[in-house]
Fold these 2 entries.
Entry 1:
Amino acid sequence: MDKGPQSEPAAADLPPQRSGAPGIHFEKVVKRFGDNVVLRELDFTVEPGERVTLIGPSGSGKTTILRLLMTLEKADGGVIRVGDRPLSHMEKNGKLVPANEKHLHEMRKQIGMVFQQFNLFPNMNVMRNLTEGPIRVLGLSKEEARERATRLLDMVGLGDKAEEHPTRLSGGQQQRVAIARALAMEPKVLLLDEVTSALDPELVVGVQDLLRDIARQSDLTILCVTHEMHFAKDISDRVLMFDQGQIVEEGPPDQIFGEPSEQRTRDFLQAVLAS
Ligand SMILES: Nc1ncnc2c1ncn2[C@@H]1O[C@H](COP(=O)(O)OP(=O)(O)OP(=O)(O)O)[C@@H](O)[C@H]1O
């Protein structure tokens, strides 16, 4: 059952947008899987154009937060906003009601995600992996979509792989295709879920460097989940330590990794270092 508030959204209370990209706002978001309460009235904000990394123990709910933003999961309570518009809800007669498919489809267009396991379409070559969404969802012509795809494949260093099938590429190359595919939809928000954890160690740095460059050169709002603390430091303006359904502590990477103030953060970082 959805328990979203029945009031006007307080758009005036939201922070001003610093870039063309929208911010992300979780307001008392609850998510349960059966008896397992994964998010407990979770509140947090990612400012427009900000790069934020979520860290925290395995199974604590970080991926669930990204999946809620991708509308792959539905919240059991609270409101999620992207920019000044609710994602999980829509406005009707001055009230918030659960979003319908049309609203979700519109909102989803703003958001791209790169997954741990690449999730490329295995039956399509690289070019079609990149052009399918822009043609089908954004209504681009085949030529426009191919032009965009070619530019992005060059950017990720795979200009010569357009006709290959994903299964013939290395994990690092597949992840580069997945990054290019996400960008081909020209999202304003980019979600990164453990994007290097399925890669062989020698391929990790290349993909991380690519994402760091994208983060620095674009005005995308980025929400990243990673166990790679160097990458988190490199890519983030701010780090959120998440545990037991709530944000435990937040701050700039130097503070969280250098002088964490919460015991739970210290324990987590020590466990990561030891692993
Ligand atoms: N579809 C689902 N059905 C039931 N339980 C689920 C489902 N998806 C996630 N969970 C549970 O929700 C909790 C949070 O999972 P989630 O994958 O979000 O954690 P995480 O912090 O991303 O973990 P990791 O760092 O290991 O990827 C876990 O207890 C998980 O078992």
Entry 2:
Amino acid sequence: MHKPLALVVDDEADILDLIRITLGRMGVAAVTALTVAEAKRQLERHRPDLCLTDLSLPDGSGLDLLHYLNAHYPELPVAMITAHGNMESAVAAMKAGAFDFVAKPVDLAALRNLVESALRLRGRTGALDEQGATDMPLLGDSTVMEQIRVLIAKLARTQAPVFITGESGTGKELAARLIHAQGPRRDGPFVPVNCGAIPHDLVESELFGHKKGSFTGALADKEGLFQAAAGGTLFLDELADLPLPAQVKLLRAIQEKSVRPIGAAREVPVDVRLISASHRDLSQEVERGRFRRDLFYRIDVIELRMPALRERPEDIQPLAVHILQQLAQTAGGIDPAACPTLSEAAIAALVRYPFPGNVRELENILERALALCEGACIEVADLYLPAVERARTPDPGTASTERRETTVDRARWNQTVAARALGMTPLALRQRLARLGIEQ
Ligand SMILES: Nc1ncnc2c1ncn2[C@@H]1O[C@H](COP(=O)(O)OP(=O)(O)OP(=O)(O)O)[C@@H](O)[C@H]1O
């Protein structure tokens, strides 16, 4: 393989020299440019493997160059050189498709990490991306799932922080794993952390580590999860549950790309890609003062929304068939050829069911059905779909209320008919309407 080549664009000759020498020590050759125009000329002559560009250049901005490169050389990873502390422009650059950023004065360890990640992308093809996907397929033929798979492949090529939203069980962790598995960090660790599951007084020590004796109970030095994820991806699930003091430290870790273990004298650089997720609306948490706005801004650089299963009912059948096959193999030890199938009525019942627990609930329903069904076919009765739930969605404040109202409207306020349509007794319906504050 030829010696990797970087294009470095900066209007300060000193910085160009410094970066060129550093890259040279890493076995990376460099061509340089002082302006956008010169950078374009260099691109006509050379085929670089990565580009590092300053944000403000004499004849345009680094963002202009980024747009040009994205349009003409979409495979080329572009990293921004930003002024120290100017996270706004770093965030803007990543939103515009930059692979990563490095702050001035350029920290050599950070530059090394960035270049190594970019070079790992070199020569990557679609086939490799698909290989990452087949290990843990994100299933679904709906247009929205197709779009999500394309977006995941794109996100895998950058280092930008991704914030994944969606109800519980919609596949947020699976999406995070795929971004990791299809990207240049695939050989590094993927460290999932459920922020809601860590006791508040231990969060900082768990995330950032501690030194022996830094607090009662700190009997030995302990590495934090940030360090455990070095070279890989840290997945912070249920981020909204992170207590405010830990949010401050997380903000600093993102900005400085380094962490300070509790009781340590100095910060240690960490090379971690951050992906976070929450089933709660983080912007609402910001409004309520429970989540720091500045942190939200840095976490939510690119948002990926995983849709609820009931928003894409066409995915239910293929998912159910795939999950059944997998369950039969792993849990039941059943030969896939002998795996029970779903009756047409059972499929129709699943497609009608609103799945408040999304794909995870579908997995649970099928696992139970597989254990209980006696023949070669899973019938509606084997599914044990909660009767009342059939008309419900998880948020009683919105969708389920609307659904009840339209059903009740349609029944012209005849509660007996409406109750029958909803699969509940008239008394239960009256109680539910009263609880939802709907006039009877
Ligand atoms: N599109 C999909 N294709 C295949 N499996 C899926 C899909 N979506 C979710 N799953 C499966 O459903 C289960 C739940 O997914 P996952 O844990 O990623 O959800 P989550 O949104 O992170 O849930 P929570 O918010 O409760 O942590 C997992 O076993 C996952 O593999």
